[in-house]
Amino acid sequence: MDHVPGDTSPDPAVTDVLPDVAPQLRSLRRRRGLTLEAAAQRAGLSPAHLSRLETGNRQPSLPMLLALSRIYGTTVSELLGETPPERDPVVRADRSEPVEADGWIYRQAGGAGRALQCLRVHVPYATRADIVRVHPGEEWIHVLEGRVRLALGDAVHVLDPGDSAHFDSLTPHRIGAATSGGAELLFVHTLMQSPAAELCLGDGTPHRR
């Protein structure tokens, strides 16, 4: 629930669920030369909501971090302050901590600071995050388990285990599981930033599992 105007205390429901990203969000926005209003418009947020994120009064969801990382031309890892001393080409399974947002469970599957961001994602059968998204870049998904319903524009595709899809993210798209137990997939997207970026993403509270 949003705070009333003038309330500057952090929301207890979201405090400490993610590293303090507020300083990073403010610094990266200013580095891009964007006003609060311009950045908020591109991310599909209100200026008041983005202001709360930048002051630490709200924590962003994982989809929201993906949106902001594209707009600022950076990575989710940098937004989270995860800057390793050197790039390790190997991502160990036991070091990939799952994070949940809106019922989607994300595991980092690629290295930090790369132009390609790679995730292993569990997609639930039904969630309010299963909404249409539009943004610059390309996406590639590969189904590992379960079945996935992929809507691209007016076309709907059902993907079985082993199937993949590669598409332009400016095409309105929606991804959801077509099986009651959910689906497991690999998800890769290009890191692109554009003044025309408009994303419609979930706003649930993320938390470490």
UniProtKB/TrEMBL annotation:
Xref: InterPro entries: Cro/C1-type_HTH (IPR001387), Cupin_2 (IPR013096), Lambda_DNA-bd_dom_sf (IPR010982), RmlC-like_jellyroll (IPR014710), RmlC_Cupin_sf (IPR011051), TransReg_Diox_bact_type (IPR050807)
Region Disordered: start-end pairs: 1-20
Protein name: Transcriptional regulator with XRE-family HTH domain
Domain HTH cro/C1-type positions: 25-79
Organism: Streptomyces nymphaeiformis
GO terms, molecular function: DNA binding; DNA-binding transcription factor activity
Gene Ontology CC annotations of this record: cytosol
Keywords from the named record: DNA-binding
